[in-house]
Amino acid sequence: MTLEIPSKVEQILHILENNGYEAYAVGGCVRDSVLGRTPDDWDITTSAKPEQVKALFRRTVDTGLQHGTVTVLMDKEGFEVTTYRVDGEYEDARHPKEVTFTASLEEDLKRRDFTINAMAYNPVRGIVDLFDGMEDLKKGVIRCVGNPRERFTEDALRILRAVRFSAQLGFQIEERTRDALRVLAPNLEHVSAERIQVELVKLLISPHPDYFRIVWEEGITGVFLPEWDACMECAQNTPHHCYTVGEHILHSLLNIRADKVLRLTMLLHDIGKPVVKKTDENGRDHFKMHGPESEKMAHTILRRLKFDNDTIHKVCRLIKWHDYRPIPEPKYVRRAVNRIGEDIFPLYLEVQEADMLAQSTYRREEKLARIQGVAACFHEIQESGQCVSLKTLALSGRDLIRAGYAPGPEIGEILNGLLEHVLDHPGDNTKEKLLTLLPPTEDSPTVSVHQS
């Protein structure tokens, strides 16, 4: 099979081979090329030692010399070139204590995680596939190279990577590999939260985010997201639902676009339901205040997984308001936008629809009509430039000071009062009109019109 590779990659391979070394594109770039996907990056493996690679190329960066990796710069693009190596003993279930360089491509490929990632390609020699990765690609299977328990013992992050690749490619995890996931899941305790976060996000924004179910089935959530387990066991005996909390969440993930903030929001939007669940005398379940509880729990979880502040802030705000249902009339929608925030209101609408589509069909048309009505009002508010926050209020604190008000807390109180008026009467958002609505100052005891 002939693969199409970038000219810069071909040039690097050519230079290495012309100087007596073996060189191949390796790993995910080969896998994706075979599948007809565009690789995110191109990695190269070679028999040349790092110092030999550096001697052949004018511009290089020492990105991982202890592991044999040099980044070769071609114009402004970087390509990782790594010497064939054999990994030593793994002491922390994550990193080898030492690596040994080898002249054998087979030894290098043998240390890799999955068969579909253990293929190499050279334009002259074609694909080198020592572990039947091509066959696994055809069958749609994720299978470890060699003994899966050994591979997962070496690097526990591979446990999550197996599920992530499964979700990205829509593949099944081979039986022995899946058995090893279950047995060795506790080893993920040795993996940093940052690395778990990366794999979690890749899984969630994949075409099959509902494969997160596998993470729960194999006991992996118990290590880094134990709150999830209660969701999968929490029934929802109410006409509005037809799934457990966990299954509802998994279905909601499928109903929203592949955006990190949106998928994280759906993953955690009902995480607090098992905590607040009450069952009445008729056997009907209620989940009052699950929004605030889910927001609080999500904040704790996202902090634990080392997410950045912006992501945490947006996700938690969306979770806080995800169950808020304004009447689809302009004045109520303006107030909803003011509460929720104009920046995330379009995301809030997406969250509400995804949540609704993962419920039972009970009153679905009515629910959908309300969401669509709110969306139409929001579009109208935006199109006409109506004020929904202090940012677009026609009067500023500086204007109030010019009008004779002393700087201080009273300025903020007055502006908020004017905003409340404008939310009900958007046509009054002009400087002239708002000045007539100001309360009197000590120097001006009377005004023509007060705030309504």
How would you characterize this protein structure?
The chain is an alpha+beta fold and 452 residues long. It has 23 helices and 13 strands. Strands 3-4-5-2-1-8-9 form a 7-stranded mixed sheet. It has a two-stranded antiparallel ribbon with strand order 6-7. A two-stranded parallel ribbon has the order 10-11. A hairpin with a 5-residue loop joins strand 12 and strand 13. The N and C termini lie far apart (76 Å). The C terminus is likely disordered.
Name the features.
single chain, 452 residues, alpha+beta, two-stranded antiparallel sheet, disordered C terminus
Note the main sheet: 7 strands, mixed
Low-pLDDT parts are 444-452
Into which percent range does the helicity of residues fall?
40-55%
- The outline comes out as globular
Q: End-to-end distance, in Å?
A: 76 Å
Query: Into which percentage range does the β-strand content fall?
Result: 5-15%
Strand order in the largest sheet: 3-4-5-2-1-8-9
Number of strands: 13
Mean pLDDT across the residues is 94
Structural class: alpha+beta
Measured on Cα atoms, how large is the radius of gyration? Answer: 29 Å
Number of helices: 23
Helix/strand layout:
Elements: H1 7-18, E1 23-26, H2 28-34, E2 43-46, H3 50-56, E3 60-64, E4 69-74, E5 77-83, E6 85-87, E7 99-101, H4 105-110, E8 119-122, E9 126-129, H5 133-139, E10 141-142, H6 148-154, H7 157-169, E11 172-173, H8 175-184, H9 193-204, H10 212-217, H11 221-224, H12 227-232, H13 245-254, H14 260-268, H15 273-276, E12 278-279, E13 285-286, H16 290-304, H17 309-321, H18 330-340, H19 345-357, H20 364-383, H21 397-402, H22 409-424, H23 431-436
Parallel strand pairs: 2-5, 10-11
Antiparallel strand pairs: 1-2, 1-8, 3-4, 4-5, 6-7, 8-9, 12-13
Helix pairs in contact: 6-8, 7-9, 13-14, 13-19, 14-17, 16-17, 18-20, 19-20
